[in-house]
Amino acid sequence: MPKRDYYEVLGINRSASEDEIKSAYRKMAMRNHPDRNPGDNAAEERFKEATEAYEVLKDQQKRQTYDQFGHAGLEQGGGFGGFGGFEGGFDIGDALRAFMRDFGGGGGSMFDDLFGMGGGGRRQRNRGEDLRVRIKLSLEEIASGVEKSLRVKRLIRCDACNGSGVAAGSSRKTCPQCRGSGRVRTMSRTILGTIQQVTTCNMCRGTGEVISDPCRTCNGEGRVRGTSTVKVKVPPGVSSGNYMTVDSMGNAAPGNGEPGDVIVVFEESEHEFFTRHGDNIICELPIAFTTAAMGGIVSVPTIKGEAQLRIPPGTQPGKVLKMRGKGIPHLHQNGVGDQLVQITVWVPTKLSANDKAILEKLEGSESFRPPEGGKSFFSKLRESFGV
Fold first, then answer.
1. Structural domain boundaries enclosing 15
2. Residue 119 falls inside a structural domain
3. pLDDT above 70 as % of the chain
4. What's the 3-state SS for the chain?
5. pTM of the model
6. Is residue 224, in this structure, part of any structural domain at all?
């Protein structure tokens, strides 16, 4: 079944702002959230569809790719599949995690906090914080792919207490305030009547347990500062702003919870000779005016080394010649971009007496006179102003 237009899914126009996108998604997600519609498969599909649309449109780079190429652009790379995208399918778990990331509280359902619905006595599941790091890549590394080793400062599990946060010989106790549920209920009076709210217990921070004798190494946190080596295998064809997620290499969680991830964001370094445009490489190449006039074979730098380029006779300054397959590989698909070589004609600044004599002789030749056809620049200028 073909996918619907993401703007249509959220009920917004293509010029919608980030706030409008977020607001439209929040309304649709709350209306179709599984906690409000238990057993309703159609609502679950609408929730997933809305979340997938939101994940694309809230990200400026993904949105630009989608606006230009549609769903095909996202499926064929475009800085999306495999880099924080939905490669291999977007399931309800992905949708719920995305929703909780931007709108939820500490691990439970948003509707638990608002209305006291859903998982009544669930404890909060601690998770460590994600870490974001940036790495610079040269065009040569982007073209061939590269493996990088990064030293990342992070919170790691405390060895003294094995991550529990509890001193040796002691143990965690059930929280007396929430009685182990990790949540407390409060009642408040409003003009609409009495409203019950379920919030995270502030005594145990949602874990349902408290520590009476904390570990002296980590002060009961279960984690300490450290440094780890993170290896990232960068595939060919990435662009600035693309990212990869390294699972479970972020901060350790308090109390032996699930560690966060490391999000590695790529940044393309400026090159002294090449400019990148999509998957094509652009460069300028100065050649002698004799080569421009008579043609010839010249050596051209490429991102994979030197290559030969044929210059046709009569090549004019500014002419762009294409070297097929000498650009950047397409991300997540077959094919390689091209190298576009813009020709500039180099004019010598110092001439010997013999050089001058040769040029003076050539100056009188018909072949060395520019064509006179067409109107001059000044004639066209006068016509444009009606004078």
1. 1-103
2. no
3. 83
4. CCCCCHHHHHCCCCCCCHHHHHHHHHHHHHHHCCCCCCCCHHHHHHHHHHHHHHHHHCCHHHHHHHHHHCHHHHHCCCCCCCCCCCCCCCCHHHHHHHHHHHHCCCCCCHHHHHHCCCCCCCCCCCECCCEEEEEEECHHHHHHCEEEEEEEEEEEECCCCCCCCECCCCCEEECCCCCCCCEEEEEEEECCEEEEEEEECCCCCCCCEEECCECCCCCCCCEEEEEEEEEEEECCCCCCCCEEEECCCCCCCCCCCECCCEEEEEEECCCCCCEEECCEEEEEEEEEHHHHHHCEEEEEEECCEEEEEEECCCCCCCCEEEECCCCCECCCCCCECCEEEEEEEECCCCCCHHHHHHHHHHHCCHHHCCCCCCCCHHHHHHHHHCC
5. 0.59
6. no
